[in-house]
Amino acid sequence: DQQVKQNSPSLSVQEGRISILNCDYTNSMFDYFLWYKKYPAEGPTFLISISSIKDKNEDGRFTVFLNKSAKHLSLHIVPSQPGDSAVYFCAASLGRNFGNEKLTFGTGTRLTIIP
Amino acid sequence: GAGVSQSPSNKVTEKGKDVELRCDPISGHTALYWYRQSLGQGLEFLIYFQGNSAPDKSGLPSDRFSAERTGGSVSTLTIQRTQQEDSAVYLCASSLRKEETQYFGPGTRLLVL
């Protein structure tokens, strides 16, 4: 049972345009959400996170949006750069009060930025 | 300023053999986690250590899997009598405290023939 779903295995975006990566979850107890980025032969690296008390968190070119009623979050990258080409994983946890240590990951979306 | 390191980077073994995977967390990090990523799957939580507390083993898929963390630092994940379905990338992560961001190592790619 996949509690965190990334339905697009791959996405190609022109350099300079906006990249939008989507993630859906089924467990309404999830309270904290993260995005990780992974290059080949490397471990995932933390990108940005959002708590359920917010609907938006922004960090430079990266913005994460959370729609709790729809159990949906998205990562926006603007403008997209060639170095953004990687696999992006969405992850969720029960929040800091209930075990933030157990992250549940999606299957990832491979983003390719076309120069 | 080393990050999380894991060894070996790749391991090929025969079905039925035991394997040991090693993780060196970031110095000073009290929490350590093991995940695995099977082909086409997301990362799957296996086990979690926090300081001197008993580990959370709730993600271990069978009793063939075990892990220990010696001296609150290095951790070893052991898989006994490996099966082909154990083939995956095994990732270790550490965090300063359990509620903090997890930093991942590069992983060990295990192939069971």
Keywords:
heterodimer, A: 115 residues, mainly beta, 6-stranded mixed β-sheet, 5-stranded antiparallel β-sheet, 52% strand, B: 113 residues
Mean pLDDT of chain A: 92
Count of DSSP strands of chain A: 11
Note poorly predicted spans of chain B.
none
Radius of gyration of chain B: 13 Å
What's the average pLDDT of chain B?
A: 92
Assembly type of the shown chains? heterodimer
- Share of helix of chain A, binned: under 10%
State the separation between the terminal residues of chain B, measured CA to CA.
Answer: 37 Å
Give Rg of chain A in angstroms.
13 Å
Descriptive notes:
The complex is a heterodimer of chains A (115) and B (113). By secondary structure, chain A is an all-beta fold. Helix content of chain A is 0%, strand content 52%. Chain A has no helices and eleven strands. Chain A has strands spanning 4-5, 10-14, 19-25, 32-38, 45-51, 56-59, 62-67, 72-77, 86-93, 104-105, 109-114. In chain A, the strands form two sheets. In chain A, strands 2, 4, 5, 9, 10 and 11 form a six-stranded mixed β-sheet that branches. In chain A, a hairpin with a 4-residue loop joins β7 and β8. The radius of gyration of chain A is 13 Å and the shape is globular. The relative contact order of chain A is 0.34. The model of chain A has no long low-confidence stretch (mean pLDDT 92). Chain B is globular, with a radius of gyration of 13 Å. The termini of chain B are far apart. In chain B, strands 2, 4, 5, 8, 9 and 10 form a six-stranded mixed β-sheet that branches. In chain B, strands 1-3-7-6 form a four-stranded antiparallel β-sheet, with no helix packed on it. In chain B, β4 (31-37) and β5 form a beta hairpin. By secondary structure, chain B is mainly beta. The chains are: A mainly beta (115), B mainly beta (113). The A-B interface holds A 2, 4, 6, 36, 41-46, 49, 89, 91, 96, 100-108 and B 4, 31, 33, 35, 40-45, 48, 50, 56, 58-59, 91, 93, 95, 98-99, 101-107.
